[in-house]
Amino acid sequence: MVVLAASIVSKSGKALVSRQYVDMSRIRIEGLLAAFPKLVGMGKQHTYIETENVRYVYQPIESLFLLLVTTKKSNILEDLRTLTMISKLVHEYSMSLDEEGIGRANFELNFAFDEVISLGYKESVTVA
């Protein structure tokens, strides 16, 4: 599994927290994150979207999306486990699950993301 980026984005595509794990230009990651809300349909039952180049694995969190951008060759089950782990950390570190709460916990969330993912690969950790 190769995670290109772990992010929390608003419904409009604004990146609130984003951590890249591979060498990627800022313009490319911003483009990927901005394109994501347009791909998500209302009432979808799936938690992933595949495009020509990447796979978006996501989880809605109130008015935001927790998002992993992965390669298409990555293991979707491993990606979902990683997303679940990061979701637990977001709930643990953020006082409120809105733009302001995520902004206040920005650094803690980035460090927590790094504990779960290293160089694009999931680490063997658990939430205590």
UniProtKB/TrEMBL annotation:
Q: What residue range is the signal peptide? A: none
* Annotated organism of origin: Cardamine amara subsp. amara
Indicate the family of this protein. Belongs to the adaptor complexes medium subunit family. Delta-COP subfamily.
Protein's UniProt keywords contain Methyltransferase: no
Q: Specify the superkingdom.
A: Eukaryota
An annotated GO BP: retrograde vesicle-mediated transport, Golgi to endoplasmic reticulum
Cellular localisation: Cytoplasm; Cytoplasmic vesicle, COPI-coated vesicle membrane; Golgi apparatus membrane
Q: Which SUPFAM superfamilies match?
A: SNARE-like (SSF64356)
Ranges annotated as spanning the membrane: none
Q: What is its main location?
A: cytoplasm
- UniProt keyword terms in alphabetical order: Cytoplasm, Cytoplasmic vesicle, ER-Golgi transport, Golgi apparatus, Membrane, Protein transport, Transport
Name the membrane topology term.
Peripheral membrane protein
- GO CC term, one of those recorded: Golgi membrane
* Name the record gives this protein: Coatomer subunit delta
Q: How does it assemble?
A: Oligomeric complex that consists of at least the alpha, beta, beta', gamma, delta, epsilon and zeta subunits.
Protein task: The coatomer is a cytosolic protein complex that binds to dilysine motifs and reversibly associates with Golgi non-clathrin-coated vesicles, which further mediate biosynthetic protein transport from the ER, via the Golgi up to the trans Golgi network. Coatomer complex is required for budding from Golgi membranes, and is essential for the retrograde Golgi-to-ER transport of dilysine-tagged proteins.
